[in-house]
Amino acid sequence: MRVLVAGATGVVGHPLVGALRARGHQVSALVREESRAKAPDADAVVVADALDRQGLLSAVAAVRPEAVVHQMTALRLLRDDPAAAFARTARLRTEGTANLVEAAPGGRGAAAGRAEHRLRGGPGRWAGPRRGRAAVRGRPGPRLGRHRTGRRRAGAAGAGRPGTGGRGTGGGGAGGVVPAGVVPAGQG
């Protein structure tokens, strides 16, 4: 299968490229900067910024993927400018995701009801950096019940991983994790 990994130089994207290739997939890596184009161990590297809609549409069309995996963040900037890193990551998760879904095989129609965002580490909210004891103490984020309620509602609306009959992702842990933004061709 031809797979495009957006965010292929990141903590999740980089090993994912290798894992997909090891399973026989033809992998294209989407990177934002020309200087990072040699980093991923992919069959092809495409340079485009997910926030540049037209540039992204052209880049994705050029590699004709059958599936797109979204692992984009700007967390590499975290050490130098945390506020900018989180602001850009938020834009990548909203505007960038919308652009990537539009560029994916079948466009927005194929992704309707199929997009899933899995939070790793629990359903808490980002409240800014904490130092010292405040980082491990304090009021926890929203209760897990809210997350489960959202999953039930999504399942009732027909969302979920293809093949689960709209029952969500099926299972938990590593076996049930579906990378955010996976849009298989023909699953619309």
TrEMBL record:
Record's compositionally biased regions (Basic residues): 144-154
Domain of life: Bacteria
Location of region: Disordered: 104-188
Name of the protein described by the UniProt record: Putative dehydrogenase
Biased composition (Low complexity): 179-188
Organism expressing this protein natively: Streptomyces sparsogenes DSM 40356
UniProt domain NAD-dependent epimerase/dehydratase: residue ranges: 3-104
Biased composition (Gly residues): 157-178
